Hints:
Helix content is 39%, strand content 18%. By secondary structure, the chain is an alpha+beta fold. The chain has a 4-stranded antiparallel sheet with strand order 2-3-1-4, sandwiched between helices. The structure holds adenosine-5'-triphosphate and magnesium ion. One of its GO terms (biological process) is UTP biosynthetic process. Keywords: ATP-binding, Kinase, Nucleotide-binding, Transferase. Its EC number is 2.7.4.6.
Amino acid sequence: VDESYIMVKPDGVQRGFVxxxxxxFERKGFKLKGLKLFQCSKELAExxxxxxxxxxxxxKLVDYITSGPVVCMAWEGVGVVAxxxxxxxxxxxxxxxxxxxxxxxxxxxxxxxxxxxxxPENGKREIGCGSTMALAC
Length: 137
Ligand code: ATP
Ligand code: MG
């Protein structure tokens, strides 16, 4: 069965959307496998987003993700990775469809409240040992 790593980013936690986001995944029918509130270190943020290291916005992205506690979650279900991306909506919240999490709750790409794995392989990496979800195992 597929697993997706879903992370409510610091602005999503601060704005009080943890319950709303969990509800949307529960209503869709996915199964919650792990959950924790976590202050992400610079090192782990850089590891999590290592594919974006060369982007000009990378330092700001690391500052953003480490600016307050995040909520780390592992969700399980058939097709959960692609489905979660649909529930979340486009990276730029102004392009995200109404009805999606970003489309309903955010306006800025640099403050888009939630992360979702972009492939089953990255889902495994982002939940596995050395990740924000499973630090040491
Ligand atoms: P995530 O990986 O967080 O789920 P995503 O897969 O939709 O988001 P990515 O391309 O992986 O988008 O970018 C990771 C994150 O980096 C984005 O969610 C956003 O917070 C930030 N980001 C992406 N592009 C920009 C940009 N042009 N300016 C500022 N921040 C950006
Ligand atoms: Mg991504």
